[in-house]
Amino acid sequence: MGDAGMDTDVVIAGAGATGLMLSCELRLAGVEVVVADRLAGRTGESRAGGMHARTLEILDQRGVLDRFLAAGERQPVSHFSGLWLDFDESESRHAYPLNLPQSAIERLLEEWAAELGVRVRWLSEVSGIRQDDAGVTVDLSTAGAAPTPLRARYLVGCDGGRSTVRKLSGIAFPGTPATMAGLLGDVRLPGLPEDYIFMRRGPGGHVSVFALEPGWHRVITSEFDRLPDRDEPATFEQLRESLFRLVGTDWGMCDPQWVSRFSDAARQAARYREGRVLLAGDAAHIHYPSGGQGLNVGVQDAVNLGWKLASVVRGEAPDTLLDSYHDERHAVGARVLRNVQAQVALVRPGAQTDALRDVFASLVEFEDVNRYLRGMLTALDIRYPADGDHPLAGRRVPDADLKTHEGTARLHELLHAARPVLLDLRGNADVAAAAEDWAGRVDLVEARSEDGHWPVPGCGEIPAPAALLVRPDGHVAWAAATDGAPDTAALRTALTTWFGAALPR
Question: Whole-prediction pTM value?
Answer without folding.
Answer: 0.95
